[in-house]
Each structure stands twice: as C-alpha cells, then as structure tokens.
Amino acid sequence: MTELHGHIDWAQRDILIALKDRIDFSKSQGFSCSTDHPVAYDSPDHLHPVGTLVDHTRHPRFIRACEDYFTDKQTLSFLDLGCSAGGIVWDAILRGHIGIGLEGSDISRLQQRAEWRLLRESLFTCDITKPFSLKRGSEEPHKFDVISAWEVLEHLTPEGVDGMFQNLRDHTYPGSIFACSISQVDGGFTDDGTPLHQTLEPLPWWRDSAAKHGFSPLDNGAFSKLDYARGNGNASIYYRPQHSYRERPGDCLLVVFQRT
Questions:
Q1: Contact assessment for residue 31 and residue 135, using Cβ atoms and an 8 Å cutoff
Q2: Which of 21, 26, 146, 244 is the most buried (most CB within 10 A)?
Q3: CATH number of the domain at 2-259, please?
Q4: Does residue 248 sit in helix, strand or coil?
Q5: For position 148, what pLDDT does the model report?
Q6: Low-confidence ranges of the chain (pLDDT < 50)
Q7: Residue 145 and residue 176 in contact, taking contact as beta carbons nearer than 8 Å
Q8: Angle at 98 (CA atoms; ends 43, 220), nearest 5 degrees
C-alpha cells in the first residue's frame, strides 16, 4: 500500500505540474538520431535485458542541481544515456527544459513501456559506443548542456567507453557537464557466462579515459552525493522503493566531468 500511494502521489503531481506550467513539449521535439547502429545488438544488456526492462529512475533533484549550476541559462538541454524508461528525460521536460534520451536496447520502445508512450519524439534507440548524431533541423550535432549516464558505463567494453566519450565530445561545448554513476561491483552473468558489467575500473582509469576526449572531473563541490540520480542508494524503480535494487556504500563512483 505504501508503494501504491507513492506511485499515485508521483503521478498526480506530474499531472498537476504539466497543467500548471502548461509544459511546452515542442522544446524537445524536432530531433532526429542518425546512426548506422540503431540498436546495441551485441550488448549483453540487449541480448539478456534486465535493468532496461524494469528500471524506472526518477530524480528531480538532479535537474534542480543542474539549474543551480547553470545560473545564467533559463532553459537547459539534457541528454540521458542508457535512459531505460525515460524517467530522467521526463523530469527535465517537467521543469521546462529540453530532454532527450538514448537507450541501447529496443525492448522498452517495442513494449511502449513507461515514458516511451508519452515522449515519442524525445526517446531514441542507438548504440552509444558507435558514432551517432543527434540533430535538430540544420544543426548537427546538437550541443547539450548536461549529459548523464546512471550505472551505464560499466556495461560497456573498454573500447566502447572510448567510443562513447567521442560521442560526448561531439555533442557538448566547453563548459558542458557529464554526470554519471559507475558501478564498481560484479553485475552478474548471462546464461552463457557473459558478464553484464564489462568494465570494472577504478576512478583514475575513468579520469584518463575522459581526459583523452577533453573532459576533466569537476571538483568544485557544486554537486553533492544526493544530487546523483543513481549510485547514492536511490531505488532503481522510483515507485517501488522497497523492492528495487539499491547500491551499498562504495558500490559506485559518483563523478561529474566538465568539457574543457
């Protein structure tokens, strides 16, 4: 009953916010995703979907923290990688910002689960480790203020991490930020023995990988642990906190990189 009441409360407030603020969905429309790899077909998370099929992360506090960081901008553009159900994208749009999400598997799109029914022009599938271009009209590619990835990077191969950072560079400008939580624990194995967490490396490794593409850690204290959408103990399914995966202290790296 507690979970049900929580779900109803979130849904009711989403409706009231949309009505009160008369959310302009057109801000996040008109985008297209160009890629030769529309699905991460070789990814264990597509072949054996787990998180992408059930997770539904929401975290309005992260959106607010980004607003506090970019005080000179009224409207921000957000890109969430490995967006699963699209909850973070929806949180950005509810605050009046541009919100776009990319997911490697097409399971959520095919099932039209969660926000995929609502945000038809804001959510796309593609392999984020291969070249892609998010554009709007003649602009190519679009430069985002904020890119995020919540417990996604550890699912990529080391070569895939390099490709992802190149895509990040193509879709950011100097001063843009990349916020992420990166698991440090074994994520289990598929039936054929393939690890779901393919890259488990310490923070210096991730810093070096980011630095090769012009990103450095933002160490000015602008973001606190509770600002991170995942990796801080938050539930993987926002409306089922008692039955969701939660990280324990030390399970995740919490990092904000800034494009230099």
A1: yes
A2: 146
A3: 3.40.50.150
A4: coil
A5: 98
A6: none
A7: yes
A8: 80
* H or E element that contains 204: helix 203-211
In angstroms, the CA 11 to CA 13 distance is 6
Both tokens assigned to 43: 């990814």
Residue 176, token pair as written in the block: 């843009």
Q: How far apart, in whole angstroms, are the C-alpha atoms of residue 65 and residue 126? A: 28
Q: What is the DSSP letter of 153?
A: G
Q: What pTM, to 2 d.p., does this model score? A: 0.94
Could you give the CA distance from residue 148 to residue 81 in angstroms, rounded to a whole number? 6
Q: How far is the CA of 73 from the CAs of 14, 26, 63, 70, 97, in angstroms?
A: 23, 18, 13, 6, 10
198 vs 6: CA distance, rounded Å: 34
CA distance 123 to 216: 28
CA distance 93 to 77: 9
